[in-house]
From TrEMBL:
Residue intervals of the Mannose-1-phosphate guanyltransferase C-terminal domain: 291-428
Organism of provenance: Aedes albopictus
InterPro entries: GMPPB_C (IPR056729), Mannose-1P_guanyltransferase (IPR050486), NTP_transferase_dom (IPR005835), Nucleotide-diphossugar_trans (IPR029044)
Superkingdom classification of source: Eukaryota
Protein family per UniProt: Belongs to the transferase hexapeptide repeat family.
Classification of source organism: Eukaryota, Metazoa, Ecdysozoa, Arthropoda, Hexapoda
Name by which UniProt lists this protein: Nucleotidyl transferase domain-containing protein
Pfam families per record: GMPPB_C, NTP_transferase
Domain Nucleotidyl transferase: 3-194
Length: 429
C-alpha cells in the first residue's frame, strides 16, 4: 500500500500570487478548470496501490474543508487535510504527523510540492525507487534547467546508477543543471532521519534558545534531510523530460493552464470544448461559440455563439460571455461577466468581475524563453530596479469593474475596484 503527501504551505506563502491568493488559497486556484492540487490528486489516484492522500499545510482547516470533501466524493481513495499549528517547513509537518502517515503500514509514500505543475510521472518514479532496492530512502524527480536558472532551484549531481552524490538548495554559484522538481518517493525509514534532526534541534533549544523565530519542529526537507543524504548511497534521482513548472507568480498560472489543457487531450478529452464552427451544435444540443483549441468551458458558463475563445482559455462556472467577445491565453474565473465585443488577452479575470463593452484587457506573457532549451519561467519580481512595474499578465482581482471602451494594459487591479479610466503598467490599489 502507498500513500501521498501534498505540501501546500499556508497563508503567508504564495505572496507572489497576489492578488489572486487574497480570496482563494493558492493551492485551490483553478487552472484548466480544476484547483491546482486537484491535478496532483488526479496523478496520485492513477497509482493503483495508492490508498490515502494527506494534504499538509497551515491554512485554517475551514478553508480546505469544502475542497477536501469534494475530492473525497470524486475519488476512490481516502483524502484528508492535516493542519500544522504553525509553519513546520517542508519536512516538519511530515514528522509531526508521522503516525498518521505510517498508519495502515504503507511501504512508501510520495511527496509532492503543491506549488508545482507537471504531468507527474509517478508510476515511473515509483518503479525507479523500487529498482534501487532496500537501500533507497528517497528518489527525486529531476529535470534539466538552464545554467543561469538552475541556481534558483535545488541542484543535483548524479554519480553511478543515478545516485545523488551532491545536493545544494539554491546554490550561490553553478552546481549542476539537473534540478529537484519537488516530487519524491520516500521510504518509511526516512522518519528516522527526520527524528534525528528533530531531536538535535531540541538539544539546541536547551542550549541556544533557538533564535530564528521558527517553531522548534520546523524542518526543511531540502537543506536538513536531502543535503546530508547526498553521497551516502541512500538517495537517487530520476531525470525526466516531461513538462514541469513551478507556480509562483500569477503569470505562471497562464502557462500552466496551457499545458494542463493540452494534457486533457489524452487524460480528459471531455473537459475540452469542441473545436468547431460558430454556432455548431455540441453533444448537448446547445450552441457553442467559435473555439480555437484548447479551451475549457464550465458547463454552467454561458458563452454567446458569436464569441471566439482560444487558444488556451479556461472559463469558470457561471461566467457570462456576450456577443463578439474575443479571448485568448486567459483564465476567466467564476461568475465574471464580459460584455459585447470586448477583447481579453494574456489576462486573469477575477471572480465576479465585470468588463463592459468594446473594452481591451491585455497583458504580457511571461513564458519561458523558447530559444533556450530547458528554460523555465523567470518569475520576475513585480517591480524593476527603477521602481517600475515589470510587464506582466493583466490581473483583475475579485469583483472588479471595468467600464465600456476602456483599455487596461499590463496592470494589476486589486479586489473591489471600480475603474473609471484606462490604465497602462500600473497596480491599481
Ligand atoms: P521559494 O522560491 O522561496 O518559494 O521556495 P521553494 O520553491 O523552495 O518552495 P518552498 O520550499 O517554500 O516550498 C515548497 C513546497 O512546500 C510548496 O508547495 C510550499 O507550499 C510547501 N511548504 C513550504 N513551507 C511549508 C510548511 O511550513 N508546511 C507545509 N505543509 N508546506 C510547506
Amino acid at each position: 500500500m502507498l500513500k501521498a503527501i501534498i505540501l501546500i504551505g499556508g497563508p503567508e506563502k504564495g505572496t507572489r500570487f497576489r492578488p489572486l491568493s487574497l480570496d482563494t488559497p493558492k493551492p485551490l486556484f483553478p487552472i484548466a478548470g480544476k484547483p491546482v492540487i486537484q491535478h496532483h490528486i488526479e496523478a496520485c489516484v492513477r497509482i493503483k496501490e495508492l490508498k490515502e492522500i494527506l494534504i499538509l499545510g497551515f491554512y485554517p482547516a475551514s478553508q480546505m474543508q469544502q475542497f477536501v470533501s469534494n475530492m473525497q466524493n470524486l475519488y476512490d481513495v481516502n483524502i484528508r487535510y492535516l493542519q500544522e499549528f504553525t509553519s513546520l517547513g517542508t519536512a516538519g509537518g511530515m514528522y509531526h504527523f508521522r503516525d498518521q502517515i505510517r498508519s495502515g503500514n504503507p511501504s512508501a509514500f510520495f511527496v509532492l510540492n503543491g506549488d508545482v505543475c507537471a504531468d507527474f510521472p509517478l508510476q515511473q518514479l515509483y518503479d525507479f525507487h523500487v529498482s534501487k532496492g532496500e537501500k533507497a530512502l528517497v528518489s527525486i524527480m529531476g529535470t534539466e534547467a538552464t545554467r543561469q536558472q538552475a541556481v534558483h532551484y535545488g541542484c543535483l549531481v548524479l554519480g553511478k546508477d543515478e545516485e545523488v552524490t551532491h545536493y545544494v538548495e539554491k546554490p550561490r554559484t553553478y552546481v549542476s543543471t539537473l534540478i529537484n522538481c519537488g516530487v519524491y518517493v520516500c521510504s518509511m525509514e526516512l522518519f528516522a532521519r527526520m527524528g534525528n534532526v528533530f531531536h538535535s534541534k531540541q538539544m539546541d533549544y536547551n542550549t541556544l534558545n533557538n533564535g530564528n523565530g521558527k517553531d522548534l519542529g520546523h524542518i526543511q526537507l531540502e537543506q536538513e534531510i536531502l543535503t546530508p543524504l547526498a553521497g551516502t548511497g541512500l538517495m537517487y534521482a530520476l531525470p525526466v523530460s516531461n513538462w514541469w513548472s513551478q507556480i509562483k507568480t500569477a503569470g505562471s498560472a497562464i502557462y500552466a493552464n496551457r499545458h494542463y489543457l493540452a494534457l486533457y487531450k489524452n487524460t480528459h478529452p471531455e473537459r475540452l470544448a469542441n473545436a468547431g464552427l460558430k454556432a455548431a451544435e455540441d453533444s448537448n444540443g446547445s450552441l457553442v461559440c467559435n473555439i480555437i483549441p484548447d479551451v475549457h468551458i464550465h458547463p454552467t458558463a454561458s458563452v454567446h455563439p458569436t464569441a471566439t475563445l482560444g487558444p488556451n482559455v479556461s472559463v469558470g462556472p457561471g461566467v457570462v460571455i456576450a456577443a463578439g467577445v474575443r479571448i485568448r491565453e486567459s483564465i476567466i474565473l467564476e461568475n465574471a461577466v464580459i460584455k459585447d465585443h470586448t477583447l481579453v488577452l494574456h489576462s486573469i479575470v477575477g471572480r465576479s468581475s465585470q468588463i463592459g463593452m468594446w473594452a481591451r484587457v491585455e497583458g504580457t506573457p511571461s513564458d519561458p524563453d523558447p530559444n533556450k532549451p530547458f528554460a523555465k519561467m523567470e518569475n520576475p519580481p513585480l517591480f524593476n530596479n527603477d521602481g517600475r512595474l515589470n510587464p506582466s499578465i493583466t490581473i483583475l482581482g475579485y469583483s472588479v469593474s471595468v467600464p465600456s471602451e476602456m483599455v487596461l494594459l499590463n496592470s494589476i487591479v486589486l479586489p473591489h475596484k471600480e475603474l473609471s479610466r484606462s490604465f497602462k503598467n500600473e497596480i491599481i490599489l
